[in-house]
Amino acid sequence: MSTLTHDAVISDDEPTPVRRRMRVPREGPLKPEQAAEALRREVERGQPWYPALLDVVARWSAADEEVNGVTQRYLLGGEAFDWLSLAQRLLAEVDEHIPPEQVERLLVFGLPPDGSTEEDFARAIGAPKHRAHLNFQYGVTVEELLLLAAELELQKAGRLSGAGGLQPDVLAYDRVYGKSLEELQLQYATETDTRLAARMRQSELQAFTYWCSKFRLRISEPARVASDTKKALSLMSRMEGGRTRLANLEREPIDVTKPKATPKKKRKRKPRKKKAAEEEA
Fold first, then answer.
1. C-alpha pair distances (Å), 63 with each of 80, 86, 132
2. Which of 7, 10, 117, 177 is deepest in the core (most CB within 10 A)?
3. Cα 233 versus chain centre, distance
4. Which tens digits make up the pLDDT trace of 146-158?
């Protein structure tokens, strides 16, 4: 988390540090520190936090920043905008003012607290950022789902055949791209001058995944691209349905004080007597 400049006021009576009031422009782009301050002021004034967050996101200007010594990347490849990572970073500045369940629904389930639509979201953050957001959706989220779908298929095939070897999540790259993970990482390093460590941060993995999506578009026939996209979107639809149901369950917890309804017992049907025994001569 980036820290704002503070002036310490030293006195015998009140040693508490006082935050210097930062200048925040009313319009135009915001630097990271200005954006955090702008959101904090709006929330502390009692304004609804989600519209205030989107307004700050619309004015955000940094592709990445250093947070506690770690580089956070919000724009991948100069064109894919990871808006939820930026939202998480900004909401951490005002978490004491926002109900945690609302933050969780947004960051985990992707559900806005006010029920607004995708069209509302696009208008709020502006067309350029929304296009970059869609690039992230298709280039990272859909690509991750395509790899997951391939992994699930390989797991199923492995159980049936009892085959060993590499893990399905590694073999999935060969299935989707026709190249091993190691070959893809080497080509990525050659093209981007970026070498990947054995253990990658989330932003590094997302950048690699976005490159893989563009690589797949280059090498695949249009029919294969359409089929793969349909497969990934189908898996997304199933996961979104389950995720929404789970979020609604968390939003409306079960009242354990109410007694459970006792199920009615089914009456056993008596077996019919054979007529043959009654009609003996």
1. 10, 10, 12
2. 177
3. 15
4. 999 999 999 988 7
Note the pTM of the prediction, 2 decimals.
0.75
Nearest-10 crossing angle of helices 142-161, 202-219: 80
Relative orientation angle of helices 181-192 and 202-219, to the nearest 10 degrees: 100
Structure tokens at 146: 């395509």
Residue at token pair 């639809």: 237
**Collapsing DSSP states into helix, strand and coil, what is residue 65?**
strand
How many residues can be counted in the chain?
281
Split into its structural domains, the chain has a count of 2
Do the domain assignments include residue 7?
no
Kindly state whether residue 277 falls inside one of the protein's structural domains: no
Q: List the domain range (segments joined by +) for residue 79.
A: 22-125
140 neighbors 213 (Cβ within 8 angstroms): yes
CA gap 225, 228 in Å, rounded? 5
Tell me which residue of 141, 204, 208, 199 sits closest to 173, measured CA to CA. Answer: 208
Residue 276 belongs to some domain of the structure = no
**DSSP assignment, residue 113?**
T
d(CA 42, CA 63): 23
pLDDT for 51-85, tens place per residue?
A: 999 999 999 999 999 988 888 999 999 999 999 99
Q: How many Å apart are CA 72 and CA 88, to the nearest integer?
A: 11
Cα–Cα distance, 113 to 50 (Å, whole number): 7
Q: What span, in angstroms and rounded, lies between the C-alpha atoms of 23 and 36?
A: 12
Q: Where are the alpha helices (DSSP H) in the chain?
A: 32-44, 49-59, 83-91, 100-107, 118-125, 127-136, 142-161, 168-177, 181-192, 202-219, 222-251, 275-278
